[in-house]
Amino acid sequence: MKEVKRLIIRIILLLACSLSGYAIIYYSLNPDSYLILKSFFGLFIGFIIAFTVIKIEKEIRKLSLKVIIGGVAGMIVGLIIALALGFGLTLVSKIEDNQQIIPWIYLLITGIFCYLGIVLGSKKIEELKFNAIDHELNNDHRILDTSVIIEGRIADICDTGFIEGKLIVPRFVLNELQLVADSSDSMKRMRGRRGLDVLNHLQKNSSIEIEIVEHDFPKIKGVDGKLVALAKQLNAKLLTNDYNLNKVAELQGIRVLNINELANAMKPVVLPGEQMTVKIIREGKEAGQGVAYLDDGTMIIVDNAQKLVNLNVRVVVTSVLQTTAGRMIFSELKEVLDKED
Q1: Each residue of 210-245: pLDDT tens digit?
Q2: 132-264 under CATH 3.10.180.10, yes or no
Q3: Are 79 and 117 in contact (CB under 8 A)?
Q4: Do 228 and 240 meet the contact criterion of CB atoms below 8 Å apart?
Q5: Alpha carbon distance 137, 123 (integer Å)
Q6: The domain 268-336: what is its CATH number?
């Protein structure tokens, strides 16, 4: 819906500028045999101006709010300096006999100082701290990566009301999601379509605002690298369940909200010495070990249970290993509850 509205506005701009260019040429020229031809030339010029404005608007959308504020402030300062210098030149110069030069001197000075103001303002604004803007960016903006969208638990978390505000989906993440959904591999295609369904579900949530940003980083290869760069640029948090992306982002000082960490925090606490009944699913990697799982997917390593696959056993917890990737419980065999064949 937003894309349709944007397209309609752009079409209106193209028509308005084209008709304005036509009318300006038509009514400013004296009637002659070439009036219609020149008017259509004005129509073409108006269309080119509108097209250029749209291209500039697309580029501006990729910039952060800080950069835009800095550029505008720098341009205003540049115009003021250019005006002051131009006024000073009229007082001290002796070029009254050649009045045609004066407008070009003003244009040259204005162009130079506007350019310097925009460039320096947009660069130096990053050195300033705007508490209100920084507070909004740091607290309300969270960037979703592809894995957390496909995985889908983020939709359930948002439905509970624990996450509110704005969630950012970069265009390059949406493109990757679309690529997965169009894959020839049936499993990948199903995962991609699930991710698109999750996004549609989030857009219908009244407490969540989904914003698709056009920021891109052509020099950076890989979606993970672009996500890290975007998070740094916007001072935003990164919502993911990718272990490697989690570590890379943390190394670069980016706040990461890992869905797996949240899930682990919600799992029941298991203490050493506690007994539980589990079913051995497969043999472990180490000699003598068997592997079982709790209902929430937590892996349990059972010593002396390698030959007890598909049997229910009672175990005693010896230790618990908590990592970002998940939780592992180490235990010792206490007794076999099923009879061995």
Answers
A1: 888 888 888 888 888 888 888 888 888 888 888 888
A2: no
A3: yes
A4: no
A5: 19
A6: 2.40.50.140
